[in-house]
C-alpha cells in the first residue's frame, strides 16, 4: 500500500516515469523542472484512475503549448496561429491533452503495479479542476519543459 512506500521516493521515481512517457509519446525531449509552484494554465486535460489509489491526473499548459501537443499527437505541422484559434482546434487541443493524460495515467498505473498496487485508468475528465490546490492534502505536482513550453502535471489522490 501507499503508506508503506516513501512519498519522496514515489515522487522521484514518478518524475522519471512521466519524463520518459512525455518524451516517448510526444516524440520530443522533455526535461523535469524543479521547484515550480502550481500555475493556473488556461488549457486542461484530465483522466481519472481507480484501484488501490484513486484520483485524477491533470495535464495543464498554455494555449500555445496545448496547440503544440495537439500538433505532435495528431502529426500536424501547423504553426501557432497569429489570430484566434478556431473552436475546432480548441476542441482538438482539449482532446489531445486528455489523450496525453490517459497515456500518463497508464504509465503511472504501470509504475504502481511494479510496487504491488493495482490502478486502472477510469475515464476522461470533462470538467476542469476547480478546487484550491493549497487545500489538497494528497497531491503530487510536476513540471516539464518541452521545447520552450512548460507542461504541468497535477495528481490528486486518495487511498481506496
What do you see in this structure?
A hairpin with a 2-residue loop joins strand 5 and strand 6 (149-159). This protein has a single domain, classed as Chemotaxis protein chec, CATH 3.40.1550. Strands 1-5-6-3-2-4 form a six-stranded antiparallel β-sheet. The protein is an alpha+beta fold and 160 residues long. The longest helix has 28 residues, at 87-114. Helix content is 38%, strand content 29%. The protein is globular and about 45 Å long. The chain contains three helices and six strands; from the N terminus they run αβββααβββ.
Describe the secondary-structure layout.
Elements: H1 7-26, E1 30-32, E2 43-51, E3 53-61, H2 63-74, H3 87-114, E4 119-125, E5 139-146, E6 149-159
Antiparallel strand pairs: 1-5, 2-3, 2-4, 3-6, 5-6
Key terms for this structure?
single chain, 160 residues, Chemotaxis protein chec, 6 strands, 38% helix, 29% strand, globular
Task: Describe, in short, the structure shown.
By secondary structure, the protein is α+β, with helices and mostly antiparallel strands. It has helices at residues 7-26, 63-74, 87-114, and strands at residues 30-32, 43-51, 53-61, 119-125, 139-146, 149-159.
Amino acid at each position: 500500500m501507499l503508506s508503506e512506500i516513501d512519498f519522496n521516493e514515489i515522487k522521484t521515481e514518478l518524475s522519471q516515469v512521466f519524463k520518459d512517457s512525455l518524451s516517448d509519446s510526444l516524440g520530443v525531449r522533455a526535461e523535469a523542472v524543479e521547484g515550480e509552484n502550481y500555475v493556473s494554465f488556461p488549457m486542461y486535460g484530465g483522466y481519472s484512475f481507480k484501484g488501490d489509489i484513486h484520483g485524477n491526473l491533470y495535464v495543464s499548459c498554455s494555449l500555445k503549448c496545448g496547440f503544440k501537443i495537439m500538433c505532435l499527437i495528431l502529426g500536424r505541422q501547423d504553426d501557432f496561429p497569429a489570430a484566434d484559434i478556431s473552436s475546432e482546434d480548441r476542441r482538438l487541443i482539449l482532446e489531445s491533452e486528455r489523450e496525453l493524460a490517459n497515456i500518463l495515467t497508464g504509465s503511472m498505473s504501470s509504475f504502481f503495479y511494479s510496487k504491488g498496487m493495482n490502478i486502472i485508468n477510469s475515464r476522461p475528465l470533462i470538467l476542469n479542476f476547480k478546487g484550491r490546490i493549497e487545500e489538497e492534502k494528497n497531491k503530487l505536482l510536476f513540471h516539464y519543459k518541452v521545447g520552450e513550453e512548460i507542461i504541468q502535471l497535477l495528481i490528486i489522490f486518495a487511498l481506496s
